[in-house]
Every structure is written in structure tokens, then in C-alpha cells.
Amino acid sequence: MYFETTFPVRYYETDQMGVVHHSNYIRYFECARNAMIDQGGYPIQDCERDGVTIPVVEVECKFKHPARMGDVITVSASIDKVPMAKLVIHQTVRNQEGALCAEGDVTLGFLNKATGFPTRCPDRLVQLIEESLKDK
């Protein structure tokens, strides 16, 4: 499963030097990740209605090249493996020239909404990921 979205760096995301603050890359990751899941056909709201929450359990982000005020960035999210108890999503942020600004992996877990205990990835999400991986 693969998705990318493009948007401009906004003023409030930068520091006094016009460089994107490091914390915003995690927000960029989330924007692309949530849009990918929505576009895949199983929005997080539906997952929660089905009784499963999807918390972030780990984020790894390596900063490569600063994104700056005025840049138009492309943020990608990709899933390469069908999840069981955890879902790992590889993410990148590139500027308009294609320079890699940041990359990393976000690991999501699955919790039973009623009990708060770990559970398996919902079957509907597994099916969507399996279908997308067949198309590769």
C-alpha cells in the first residue's frame, strides 16, 4: 500500500531561520498515514466504531535535509508487510526538488477499545493491505 500527498510548508511550522521544526515531521507523517488509510477504504473512525483503536507505539525519524519556508513538500507512507499485532509504516518527506528531508518508520499497535488490551489488526484492514500488496 502506498500513498503520497503534497502541500506547502506553512509559516507556523518553521523557526526563526525559516527551517521546519523537527516536531512537525511527525505531524507530516500522520497526515500522509491517515490519508492513506482513508483512501484505502477503512478510515480510522470506522476502525474505532468496530472496536479497535490504533495508537502509535514507536516513531523513528532520521533528518536528512532541512525543509524550509516556501518549500512544497511531498510526504509518503507505505506498507510493505501484512500486520498481525503491529503495523509498520515507512514514511518520507521530500522537498519540491526531490531532496530527502526526513524518513522513518511509524509502528502502530491495535487495542480493543472496550478493554484497552492488545488485539490483532482488524480483518478489514488486513484485507486492504493484502490486496494492495498483490498489485505490487
Task: Note down, in words, how this protein is organized.
The protein has 136 residues and is of the alpha+beta class. It is built from three helices and seven strands; from the N terminus they run E-H-H-E-E-E-E-E-E-H. The strands form two sheets. It has a five-stranded antiparallel β-sheet with strand order 1-4-5-6-3, covered by helices on one side. It has a two-stranded antiparallel sheet with strand order 2-7. Strand 4 (72-78) and strand 5 (86-94) form a beta hairpin. The chain is elongated, with a radius of gyration of 16 Å.
Topology overview:
Elements: E1 2-8, H1 23-40, H2 44-49, E2 52-53, E3 56-63, E4 72-78, E5 86-94, E6 100-109, E7 111-112, H3 123-134
Antiparallel strand pairs: 1-4, 2-7, 3-6, 4-5, 5-6
